[in-house]
Design goal:
This protein is α+β, with helices and mostly antiparallel strands. It has 2 domains: 2-54 and 265-397, no CATH class; 80-250, no CATH class. The chain is built from 12 helices and 12 strands. It has helices spanning 2-16, 18-54, 84-90, 126-131, 156-165, 209-215, 234-248, 259-302, 304-312, 317-353, 363-388, 392-397, and strands at residues 60-67, 97-106, 110-112, 115-117, 120-124, 136-139, 151-154, 174-177, 180-188, 204-208, 223-228, 252-258. Strands 1, 2, 3, 4, 5, 6, 7, 8, 9, 10, 11 and 12 form a 12-stranded mixed sheet that branches. It is elongated and about 100 Å long.
Length: 399
C-alpha cells in the first residue's frame, strides 16, 4: 500500500511542476525513440535484404568455374572450357542436386532501332528460369530446342527502355547483338536482384546457351546455379563436385556460394549493425537520464522543508527514498512509452519512404522501453538517496 501512496504522491508532485516534468520527459522520450527507431529500422533493412534471397529459396548453390591457381601460364591457351555436357554432368555428382542451370555471360554492343542499349548478355538454358523463378509477362522462355537459334528473352528494365524508344510492343521485334539479329520471343517480369547471381536479370538479354558460343569464341560456362534438396549437406555436395571436376582434368577449380551461408553471414552482420545502432541511440537515452537526475536533484533542493516535515512526523528514510525514486521511475515509464510509440512511427515512415515491408518486431520496443526504465532507476537513485539522508532539523530550518 505504501508504494501505491508514494506513486500517487509522486504523480501529484510531477503534475505541479509541469515545465520541469515536460523537460525531463522530453529527454527520455527522444532517447527511447532513438533506440527504437534505429534498432527497428536496422531490422527492417535486414529483413528486406534477406527477403531477396528467400524469394528464390534457400536451397541454392552458386558454383563459379575458374582456372586453377597452379596452372602454368604457358599452357593457358591449351586449357579447354567446360562444355554444356560436362556442366550438366556435374549435377550428377551428388543425389541431393535436383537441377542445374549453367550460363555464360557476355558484354556486346546491343541496339534496338539503331539505339544503343546498355545491357548484359546471358547464355542460358530453360532450367535457368525454373531455378531462379523468372516469370514471363509475354511470350516464352528460350528452350533446349532453340539450340543455335537467334531468339532472346529481355529483362524488365530492357523492356522499359525499348518502350521508351518505340511505341510498339517488343515481342516479335528484332534486336541487334553485335553483327547478329535476334528475335524477341519473351519478356521477363521484374526480378529481385541479389548478390547470389552474378548478373541483373532485369537488365539482361537471355539467349540460348549454344547461341552464345556463336557470338564469341571467348564465351564460356563460368557459372552454374544448382537446386538442392531441402536440408542437404552442403559441404559434402561441394566435396563431390570438386572431385567430379578433378576427374574431368580440365585444370579448373570450383568456388561456391551457398544461399544459406550468405543469409547466415548477412544475419551476423545485421546483429553487429543492430548493436552498433542501439549503442548510438543509447547515447541520447543517457543524456535523457542525466536530465532526469538534474530535475530530481532540483526537486530535492526545493522540497527540503517538505522532506523535514515528513521525517519529523514519522516518515522513515526508506519512505523518502521510495517517494523520490518512484517519481524518477514514473518519468521514465511515461517517457519510455511515448518514446516507443514515436520510434515505431519513425521506423514506419522510413519503411514507407524506402518501399520496405513494415514488420513490427517486438524486441526493439521492449528493449527500448526496458532500457528507459533502467535509466530512470539508475539516475533517480542518487537524488532519492540524498533526500533520504537529509537531517530533519536542518531540513526544517531551510527556507
Amino acid at each position: 500500500m505504501k508504494l501505491v501512496e508514494h506513486a500517487k504522491e509522486g504523480l501529484r508532485n510531477l503534475f505541479f511542476a509541469k515545465l520541469r516534468t515536460m523537460l525531463a520527459l522530453l529527454g527520455v522520450l527522444v532517447g527511447t525513440a532513438s533506440v527504437v527507431a534505429m534498432v527497428l529500422g536496422g531490422e527492417l533493412a535486414t529483413n528486406e535484404a534477406l527477403k531477396q534471397f528467400k524469394s528464390l529459396g534457400t536451397d541454392l548453390l552458386a558454383v563459379s568455374i575458374t582456372t586453377a591457381a597452379d596452372t602454368d601460364m604457358m599452357s593457358l591457351d591449351k586449357i579447354n572450357n567446360v562444355t554444356l555436357t560436362q556442366a550438366i554432368s556435374l549435377a550428377h555428382a551428388d543425389k541431393n542436386i535436383l537441377g542445374s542451370a549453367p550460363y555464360t555471360q557476355l558484354f556486346y554492343p546491343v541496339y534496338y532501332d539503331s539505339q544503343p542499349l546498355n545491357t548484359v548478355i546471358l547464355g542460358v538454358t530453360d532450367s535457368f528460369a525454373d531455378i531462379l523463378k523468372i516469370k514471363l509477362t509475354q511470350g516464352r522462355f528460350v528452350s533446349v530446342a532453340d539450340q543455335y537459334s537467334f531468339f532472346c528473352v529481355i529483362g524488365h528494365e530492357i523492356y522499359n527502355k525499348i518502350k521508351q524508344l518505340s511505341s510498339r510492343e517488343p515481342l516479335g521485334q528484332q534486336i541487334q547483338v553485335g553483327r547478329h539479329i535476334f528475335v524477341i520471343v519473351g519478356v521477363a517480369d521484374a526480378w529481385p536482384e541479389n548478390n547470389f547471381v552474378n548478373a541483373s536479370v532485369d537488365n539482361a538479354i537471355m539467349i540460348p546457351l549454344m547461341a552464345s558460343f556463336t557470338l564469341s569464341k571467348y564465351a564460356a560456362i563460368t557459372n552454374i546455379i544448382m537446386q538442392l534438396a531441402p536440408k542437404s549437406d552442403i559441404p559434402q555436395i561441394e566435396s563431390h563436385l570438386s572431385a567430379k571436376m578433378d576427374a574431368m582434368q580440365l585444370s579448373k577449380q570450383l568456388n561456391y556460394r551457398s544461399a544459406k551461408e550468405l543469409i547466415a553471414r548477412m544475419q551476423k552482420q545485421s546483429d553487429i549493425l543492430t548493436v552498433f545502432l542501439g549503442l548510438i541511440g543509447s547515447v541520447s537515452l543517457l543524456v535523457g537520464g542525466i536530465g532526469v537526475m538534474n530535475i530530481m536533484l532540483v526537486s530535492v533542493v526545493e522540497r527540503r522543508r517538505e522532506i523535514g516535515i515528513r521525517l519529523a512526523v514519522g516518515a522513515t528514510p526508506s519512505d523518502i527514498r521510495a517517494l523520490f525514486l518512484l517519481e524518477a521511475i514514473m518519468l521514465s515509464l511515461v517517457g519510455g512509452v511515448m518514446g516507443v510509440v514515436l520510434g515505431v512511427i519513425i521506423a514506419y515512415i522510413i519503411a514507407l519512404a524506402w518501399h520496405w515491408q513494415f514488420i513490427l518486431f517486438l524486441w526493439p520496443p521492449i528493449v527500448g522501453f526496458s532500457v528507459s526504465v533502467m535509466v530512470g532507476i539508475f539516475f533517480g537513485f542518487y537524488p532519492a538517496y540524498l533526500a533520504s539522508r537529509l537531517d530533519p532539523i536542518e531540513a526544517l530550518r531551510s527556507e
